[in-house]
Structure formats: structure tokens, C-alpha cells
Amino acid sequence: MTRFSLIIYFLVPIGFTDKTPDNQKIMNGRDAHRGQFPFMISIQKLGMRKSLCGGALIASDWVLTAAHCSVALGLNMVLVAGTINSVKFDKGYQERRVKSIYYPGNSSGPGILNDISLVRPNKRFTRTKFIKVLPYQRCDVSIGDRVLIMGWGTFNKSGEMAKILQWAEAKTNEFDVCGGDAPLLNHSGFACIRGDNKKLTMARKGDSGSPGIYRGKIFGVVSMGISMFSYGSLYTKTSPYHDWIVSIVPRNGNGEEMRTLYEAVSSFLIVSSFAFPGLL
């Protein structure tokens, strides 16, 4: 069996010379419109205007992202909300520095990477029409579930980042779609995400930490994958870290009443009109 190396989808911010294939973004994604995903956070490095990772605003003062993003950037991380343009920020954007970063600890078993983290900004984000919270709730996905993916991943051979937030429809697949011959990984901690064969959609380099959404809830964050066209991407599932997340982040979104995060819609694939009724 041919073996490939799984790579972390973090874009090195300085001295990056990797020749990234044209498909290295949210594959076959489309531009998001402002306000479509108001919980999305562009994670950047102090002094740069380039999205290096993504994150989700799960409370006014908590951002959920991948651990490898937080480790790489540390307190040099800048959190940007309220913009779909990661270079020329939209009017009304808000920018925060980092107060603290939380990790779930060392690996708790073979192949468990714990590639998830919680970032606390130095000041709460003020909620507006374009900045809203998607409160965390436990979410599990099964093979075949249709999901939404999003991010500001790279999209050309020079490693240029997508300036406008991209999103796409995809689904949960068997692990071999993401390179199932990775014996060192505990498959139960990851979800393999890719679109169907007619229109491949997947996360790529620079999308790290960006949330995957299932029925209005966050099922995982972009972690790693094989940098080849046909393979999907691995998302760190949130469900194994449920107890850890709720032990840190208030269950009710900083004192506000928790609302139902998902309401049935006639067609999940009509995403242009897909609503997040649980946004606060």
C-alpha cells in the first residue's frame, strides 16, 4: 500500500517558499457574503495582514481553533472578527490580541494528538450585525453526513492566501478517503471530510483551525491532511473534548440564554439561505 505523509495545514508566516498546488484552498469553494458566517475569526500574526488560521467565536471572549495554530503563533496571535476580507478588513471589523490559550493537555492515548485549543482575547468582542457567537454544543457526525466547511486557505502556486472567505458543502467519509493507512492516528478523534466525486471540496493549507459545521453546530476544526487533489482533510472532532470545553467556556455563552442551534430546513444543501438560529 502506498503511504503518504499527513501534513498540518498551517501556513508558515515567514520565509514561506513552498510551491502550493492551485487546489490548496477550500477546494471548489465559493466566496462567502458578509454576515453569512459571522462567527468566523481570521487568525493572523501581529504586524501582518494575512490569515494564517481560522477559528470560531463560541462566546464573546472565547475562540475555538486548532492547537497547532495556537502553538505556532502564541501571544503574537491577532484575532480578527467581522470581515470576510482577510487583507482589507471590512468596515466595522474588530481586532483583539490574546490574553491566554488553553490546551486539553498531553496526548491521552496512542495516536491522540489533541489538536484543539481555546483562545481567550484580551477584550470581549462586541456583537454586531456581522459579529455573532455560535455557542458550543456537543456535536457528533457519522459517515455520509452533509457538512459545511470554510476558511481562507492558500489557492495558488506562490502560496497566496484567499483574501475572501471561502465556503463549500462536503460530507463525512471513511478514513481511507483522507489516507486511511496512517496507523499512528486514533481514527475516533478525527472526521475525514471531502465532497463527493462529482465536485471535490475540502480544506487545505491555511484553513487550519477553521470550523466544520453540521446542522448549525461545530463538529470539528481543520487539522491535517495529504496535500493531493483526491484526498480529503482531517478535522479534529470536538465531541471527544466536550467535557474539557464546557469546563472552560460558560455553557450559556457568557450569561445569555442558550438558544436552539439548529432548526429543520427543507433542504440542507440550500446553504445560501441556511440560517444559524443559535447565533447570539
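That was protein one. Protein two is written in the same sequence-then-structure order:
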Amino acid sequence: MKHCLRLASVLLLLPLSSGCVLAIGNKGQAASPKLGATEEVDEEIVEAERELALAKLDLALAQKKSEHALAEKREGVEQKRAARAAAAKELQLFQAVTRPHKLAAADIELDDAKRDVWEAEQELEELRAMYAKEQFAERAKELVLGRGEKSLALAKRKLELAQAERAALESGELAQHATKLAEELRQADVEQQFAQNEVALAELEAHAELEKARGELAAKERALVKAKTGAKDGEKSDKDGAQAGAKAGA
């Protein structure tokens, strides 16, 4: 009789035990998705932090590259400015010193040639006057006067050469050199302006790159804040759900 009562008790408790096991199993299955969601949120935060760190590095790199590029361009401007100043100084020196000095030297040679002609003319005139008054051998007279005439002719040729060289110096060599220096100065002006334009362009490009990097950094910061906010909201939701379940169980 006792065995029959024990068997009946086991049979009555069996459905209740099965329900408890099923409830426990369901509770374990329900907790698993919550754990997976938490891990996913944590991964999003880690990824957002990593991307934010990379964005900061990109911004720092962009700043360094911009500073380096601008430094190179500005150094180029300084070099062109120095070259332009040197060209201007050379042209000024040529016009103020070199050209007048060379022309003065040519004028001295020209004046010297004119003096030689004048002296030769005076000497020849004196010889002619002397031989016209006194009685000298005809042969000696011809020799002396011939030498005087040749000296005068040579002096005149030297004068003509000095005049031609002086004219060629002023209108040829000096004029060409002045034109060359003026062209070098003009080219230096162009190169300096071009270098300044490159600096302005580099500044615009640097500004654009930095603004882009700052925008990406701000986006990564917002993404991190969003991920952390989502994690907090998820934790609050889980906490509220747990509290509601506890109240319902009570």
C-alpha cells in the first residue's frame, strides 16, 4: 500500500518538475541574446574609439604635412625674392657704375686719339712752315714731311677706331648687357610672383585638408558618443526589465 502511495506522489510531481525544467531552460535561452547584444555594443565602442584615434592621427599628420609644404613654398619665395633683389642690384650697379665707367674709359681713349691727331697736325704744319722758309735738300724735306703726314694719318685712323669702338660700346655691348640684366630682373619678378602664388595655393590646400581631417575627427567623436549612449540605454533597459520582472515575481 505504501509503494502505491509513493508512486502516485511521483506521478503527481512529474508535470510540475517538467515545467520547472522547461522554465529554467527558457530563462537560460532568454539571457543568451542579452549577453550577445552587450558584447556587440562593446565591440562598437572599441571600434569607434579605434577610429577616433586614427582620425586624430590623420589630423596630426595633415597638420605636419601642411606645415612642411608651406615651409618649403615659403622658403622658395624667399629664394626668389633674394634672386630678384640680386638681379635688381646688378642692374642698378651696371647703370650707375659699370656703364658710366666703361664709357668714360672709352671717352678717354677717344680724347687721346683726338689729341694725337691735333699734335700730328700741328707738327706737320710747323714742318711745312719751316721747310717753306729755309733752304733744305729736297730729299730731306720729303722724308721729314712724309713722316709727319704718316703720323697724322695714323692718328686719324686711331681716332676713327676709337670713335667706332666708343659707339659700339654704348649702343652694342653696354646696351645688350643692360637689356640682359633688365630681362633677368623681369624674369626674377615673374618667378617671385609665381612662388608667392604657390604659397597661396598651398595655404588653401592645407586649409582644405585640415578642415576635412577635422570633419572626419568630429564624425568619429559623434560615433563614439552615440555608441556609448546606446550602451547606456541598453544597460538601463536591461535594468528596468529586471526590476519589472522582480516586481512581477513578487
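Residues 1-35 have pLDDT under 50 and may be disordered. Keep this in mind for the problem set.
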